[in-house]
Amino acid sequence: MNSESQVDKTRLPRHIAVIMDGNGRWAKAKGQPRVFGHKNGVKAVREISEASAELGIEYVTLYAFSTENWNRPKLEVNALMTLLVETVRREIATMNKNNIRLNAIGELDKLPGKSFKALLDGIEETKNNSRMTLTLALNYSARWEIVEAAKRLSKDVKDEKVQTENINEEIFSQYLSTHNMPDPELMIRTSGEQRISNYLLWQMAYTEFCFLDIFWPDFTREHLYKAIIDFQSRERRFGKTSEQIIS
Ligand code: FPP
């Protein structure tokens, strides 16, 4: 029996953020090149996407390529970009069947032309789907995103569209690439690393973290259920006392 029946469907996180880590180590442990790990990581992407949609999660955001990942060997970067194109193209039909909308955040126009195009096509072809939004963070870094938001906001101040004294957290959030999503309530990171690595820094102010001691290609829907069950057992206080939460 799996753990799905123990998930309280009335208290699901609306948004789950994921750092898919450990593909390289997974491959190395099998005596294979790193790219083999990334290819197998795609299976886990499918697993978390389908299981989340079936449960009723509205948003899943996957860290697929960080700005820092450009520093990897050229061969690996190229392989990751090719994998992205192939995966997006191959999965569009399944996403449409499952009513999943593809979305992407990050400095997307700096991706290789083919990857950028495949991504835009995938986003366009799934734009009317409404069950779940699957966002890929690509060439993404949270500090870059915050700086971009600050730049665009200051332009709007200069153009007198926004008054400085009216700027608050809600207005600032509107300038982030996640402006149309709720903040993640749960963040899952695999591979045993316990960091947030420049991921959704603004949005994760109150997020519950779940660090798993498995490599990403080994991630299954059972890990998702367990992470949600763990999340549901925690008390989210947002700075209040336990008594205030209960009453
Ligand atoms: C981290 O493992 C993983 C990545 C940098 C890439 C994630 C990409 C995929 C799962 C495949 C493509 C995804 C999509 C959505 C098409 P690592 O390489 O940092 O592993 P290591 O820490 O063991 O070296």
Give the SSE layout:
Layout lengths: L14 E5 L3 H7 L4 H22 L3 E8 L7 H24 L2 E6 L7 H13 L6 E9 L1 H17 L10 H5 L12 E4 L18 E4 L9 H13 L8 H5 L1
Parallel strand pairs: 1-2, 1-5, 2-4, 3-4, 5-6
The structure holds farnesyl diphosphate (FPP).
Farnesyl diphosphate binds next to α1, α2, β2 and α3.
What does it look like?
With 247 residues, the chain is an alpha/beta fold. It has a single domain, classed as Undecaprenyl pyrophosphate synthetase, CATH 3.40.1180. The protein is 43% helix and 15% strand. It has eight helices and six strands, in the order E-H-H-E-H-E-H-E-H-H-E-E-H-H. Strands 3-4-2-1-5-6 form a six-stranded parallel β-sheet, sandwiched between helices. Helix 1 packs across helix 2. The radius of gyration is 19 Å and the shape is globular. The site of farnesyl diphosphate has 20 residues, from helix 1, helix 2, strand 2 and helix 3.
What is the overall silhouette? globular
Largest sheet: 6 strands, parallel
Strand content: 5-15%
Structural class: alpha/beta
Q: List the secondary-structure elements in sequence, H or E.
A: EHHEHEHEHHEEHH
Strand sequence of the main sheet, in spatial order? 3-4-2-1-5-6
Give the uncertain stretches in residue-range form. none
CATH top level class name: Alpha Beta
Helix content: 40-55%
- What name is given to the CATH topology? Undecaprenyl pyrophosphate synthetase
How many helical elements? Answer: 8
Q: In total, how many domains does the architecture comprise?
A: 1
What distance lies between the first and last C-alpha atoms, to the nearest angstrom? Answer: 36 Å
Q: How many beta-strand segments?
A: 6
Bound chemical compounds: farnesyl diphosphate
Q: How would you name the CATH homologous superfamily?
A: Decaprenyl diphosphate synthase-like
Radius of gyration: 19 Å
Average pLDDT taken over every residue: 95
CATH architectural type: 3-Layer(aba) Sandwich
